[in-house]
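pls design
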């Protein structure tokens, strides 16, 4: 089980696979995949929030999954999609930005996938919010 946590102000972001068992330290469990993960019962997943608007579009997800070597091209495309969802990002941070948040995915690669991009994006957005008087 791989976990990475980053603290920005009072927002603490973690990421892990949905197939890892829930832990007391998870805080708010956020499914960050557009599709429900295979083989996971909704009751067992203990998902608190499923903000599909913060996940890669179906088109972008399919494009990236067809060739994961496109990661360097995927990052700015996904960031642009998140820019288009700025109101949803802001609402997410307003509602959940004062607690531990665990971003969950079915993807095997937590480092070169959409979860890393989303985590970095939320960190930057949170830092900007904290710096705004």
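designed seq:
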């Amino acid at each position: 089980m791989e976990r990475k946590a980053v603290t920005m102000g009072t927002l603490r972001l973690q990421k892990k696979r949905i197939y890892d068992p829930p832990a007391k330290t998870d805080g708010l469990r956020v499914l960050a995949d557009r599709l429900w993960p295979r083989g996971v019962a909704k009751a067992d997943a203990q998902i608190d929030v499923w903000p599909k608007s913060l996940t890669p579009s179906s088109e972008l997800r399919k494009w990236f999954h067809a060739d994961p070597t496109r990661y360097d091209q995927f990052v700015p495309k996904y960031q642009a999609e998140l820019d288009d969802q700025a109101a949803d990002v802001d609402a997410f941070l307003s509602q959940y930005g004062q607690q531990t948040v665990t971003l969950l995915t079915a993807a095997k690669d937590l480092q070169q996938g959409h979860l890393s991009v989303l985590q970095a994006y939320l960190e930057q957005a949170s830092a900007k919010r904290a710096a705004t008087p």
